[in-house]
Amino acid sequence: NLGVDETAARKEIRAFRRLCGAIGLDAPRCDAVLQAARRRHKAVVRQWTDLKSDGGIADTAIETLKPYVIWLPAFTRVNANTASAEVLYAVLQTIDFGAAQQLLVTRDRAPFKDEADVRSRMPNGGQSAPDTGQIDVKSQFFLVKGSVQVQESRLRAEALIQRQDNRVYTVWRID
Q1: Comparing 6-10, 57-61, 77-81, 144-148, which segment has the lowest mean pLDDT?
Q2: CA angle (11 as vertex; 68, 130 as ends), nearest 5
Q3: How far, in Å, CA of 66 to CA of 80, rounded?
Q4: Is this prediction's pTM over 0.90?
Q5: Which of 33, 45, 50, 166 is the most exposed place for a label (fewest CB within 10 A)?
Q6: Is the dihedral of CA 75, 99, 121, 125 positive or negative?
Q7: Are the C-beta atoms of residues 1 and 12 closer than 8 Å to each other?
């Protein structure tokens, strides 16, 4: 979402910086990733190495971000039913990290039904939380990883699939 129009990108950049802080990624490394992502926003980024080829991104930054960030071909809201506490903290900017962790506890008891349900479970019923347009309770993209081993040969594959209009499409596949 970092490559969207300038107005929307401000929210996304703020959320990305907040995520970087939550996971312990320092500001210079966070900004290097931001700059590379903004330069490459029109190009298809499938893996972190696609972005790394632009230079200036440390391997430690990539390893730190990998569990929390994925490159998708379209603007996509964060699925509150699958997001980590760090990601929820980043996009729900009026809550602290403890409140984000508490949201996961309530989610474990019952999945979120819709965005209003997410907000109702936030401190103060989410009344102080503006609608950022950054969360949802469903996904249209899925990362699939698999491996097959026959004797000493092993095949690994990774694919990004998209569900849209009751159809499933392969966006990309890497063998």
Answers
A1: 6-10
A2: 105
A3: 18
A4: no
A5: 166
A6: negative
A7: yes
